[in-house]
Amino acid sequence: MIHSAEGLRSSFFAHRSWLDGSVVFDRRSGYTHYLDAETMAVFLCILNLPECEANINRETLDLLARRIPDMAEVDIEQSLQQLTRLNIFTN
Amino acid sequence: MTVIRGSVAQLSFVDFSRFLKEGKLALEVGSLVIRCRSIMPSVAKSIYTLYKHHPFQISPDFADFYVEVKAPANLRRWYRPQAEFLVDGERPFEPLPKDQAPALFEWGINWMVAASCHFWFTIHAASLERNGQVLILPAPPGSGKSTLCAALAFNGWRLFSDELTLLDIENIEAQACARPINLKNESIDIIRRFVTDAEWSPEVFDTLKGRVTHLAPPIDSVMKMRERAFPRWVVFPKYVADAEPSLTLRSKPQSCIDLAENALNYSILGETGFNLVTRLIDHCDCYDFIYSRLEDALLTFEQLAESEQLTRNGF
Known about the structure:
The complex is a heterodimer.
Chain A: E1 3-4, E2 13-18, E3 21-26, E4 32-35, H1 37-47, E5 55-56, H2 58-67, H3 73-85
Antiparallel strand pairs in A: 1-5, 2-3, 3-4
Helix pairs in contact in A: 1-3
Chain B: E1 4-7, H1 13-21, E2 25-29, E3 32-38, H2 41-50, E4 55-58, E5 65-70, E6 82-87, E7 96-97, H3 101-116, E8 120-130, E9 133-138, H4 145-153, E10 158-161, E11 164-168, E12 174-175, E13 181-184, H5 186-194, E14 204-207, E15 210-215, H6 219-223, E16 230-239, E17 246-249, H7 252-262, H8 266-269, H9 271-283, E18 285-291, H10 294-312
Parallel strand pairs in B: 3-5, 9-16, 16-18
Antiparallel strand pairs in B: 1-4, 2-3, 2-4, 5-6, 6-7, 8-9, 8-10, 8-11, 11-12, 13-15, 14-15, 17-18
Helix pairs in contact in B: 1-2, 2-3, 4-5, 4-10, 7-9
């Protein structure tokens, strides 16, 4: 699945994290989402990517994997799917 | 003009009914002043019973809301008569059968606060205070929230609200209203056995919620209704028949989402609501609580409050 983080800006979101997960408020939609710790890590990493405006491709996945070495690529991909399901990304 | 003030019990029922009929009576409920009018004797009797210890004013210069319960001007006056609730001259919902008029007054005020008072963060939850700390009990209908709230309110906890928890949007301090507790069906009989010296409004049958009645708040809760306090616990109660009591820590982010879902003006407040609910969760310990016996519940919450008190005292 291709995930698009095109135009995504950290200013679109407010978030708060606890040990057992995080909540994210999406200023564009007004929705609040629960994210588990892994999905939150991927989300924050993407917001900090300089190439955030482009589609998340093979190169981006490799970059995420390098930046979050504790997570397997399959888990990163699942987190991306979760962010897409929540309409934080588009696909 | 000098405004007459006092507590409702200082008025004779005859005088009270006259002021209510003339629309001169204003009840002080928490920090709200609600000017009331009704010519219906059942409404007068119910308000007089349930708000006996609340302060009142006669013809004040200002009231936050003007409410009225009356018979609608239609042919129903003669065939299956009805009652309607008006707030500031508007009718927010359809009339109900006339025998539900006293309950309609309470439900109407709930609606009025939820729909208009956005200077508070309003959660569909009961709240009570002990040792200066507030317990919030959010839960869907049928979870035993009001039953538990009534039992706690008459056993050492100060009632803030059984239905709408009101938090200051600046500092998340909880605001008390000490309004009547709405009970329905089996809960009525359970609390009648459990709280023997309380005052009740007459029971109403065949409502959308089944058999309902209201229980007058304890006098101490009314006397202290202007004393605010900060939330300390968020507990999601669930009545499960024959279950042993179980209080278990709950995920903070999940509690945050569940509280937001129970907040009546979360979407209206937008990011302010988000910031508020996350601060609330930061301030509070969050639990799930399963119970079947009120005695167990009282003991559990007693221990929760006492352990907090010991911690605060440095033990």
